[in-house]
Amino acid sequence: MNTIEWTDALVLDFEPIDTQHHAFVDLLARAQQAPDDALPQAWTALVNHAVAQFEWEDEWMQRTGFSSAANHTLQHRVVLNLLREGIAQARSGQLAAVREMAFELAAWFARHTQTQDAALALQLRHHPALPARGGSSPRAPAQRGGRAPR
After folding, report:
1. How far is CA 1 from CA 26, 98, 101, 107, in A?
2. CA distance 37 to 18
3. What burial letters (b/e) apply to 66-102, b meaning 16+ CB within 10 Å?
4. C-beta neighbour count of 10 within 10 angstroms
5. Which residue range is the domain that position 138 belongs to?
6. d(Cα 47, Cα 38) in Å, to the nearest integer?
7. 3-state secondary structure of 125
8. Is 46 in contact with 31 (CB distance < 8 Å)?
9. CB atoms within 10 A of CB 143
10. What is the DSSP letter of 133?
11. What pTM does this model have?
12. Is 110 within the bounds of a domain?
């Protein structure tokens, strides 16, 4: 299994999303490469970022009347539920399951970016007043309050 890397195939030409996606890829790569003793912390950092990123995307979909918002938001919820389960698994020593989840997440993320998020980026380009919250990109989890369960 290969470690996820940022590639041009993930670029959506919408800076706020691209910035968050690049950070997601970096955090996922760290989790994939983390030694066993560091995996729970690396996975939690990834989940915290995903919570904030998905909240931000969901908010923008709502504010712009994005037609595929229901499906897109449902994907976010399902993935976050699985990622949160990964925190519990990592903390209980089920590291192989979390490592498998990390590689499956990389495949999902590429598909999600190239389909769901590509459509969202196109929609957001037509709303120049956005983003009204947090400047040109979403706030980090600590600033937004997005936290994974402990």
Report:
1. 17, 14, 12, 11
2. 30
3. beebeebbebbeebbeebbebbebbeeeebeebbebb
4. 20
5. 16-28+37-144
6. 14
7. helix
8. yes
9. 10
10. S
11. 0.85
12. yes
> Is the residue at 11 inside a domain?
no
> For residue 13, what is the enclosing H or E element?
none
Euclidean distance between the first and the last CA atom of the chain, given in angstroms as a whole number: 29
CATH number of the domain residue 90 falls in: 1.20.120.50
Does a structural domain hold residue 6?
no
Within a domain: 88: yes
Domain count, the chain: 1
| Separation of alpha carbons 47 and 62, rounded Å | 22
Per residue of the chain (150 residues), give pLDDT as tens.
678 999 999 999 999 999 999 999 999 999 999 999 999 999 999 999 999 999 999 999 999 999 999 999 999 999 999 999 999 999 999 999 999 999 999 999 999 999 999 999 999 988 866 654 434 444 433 333 444 444
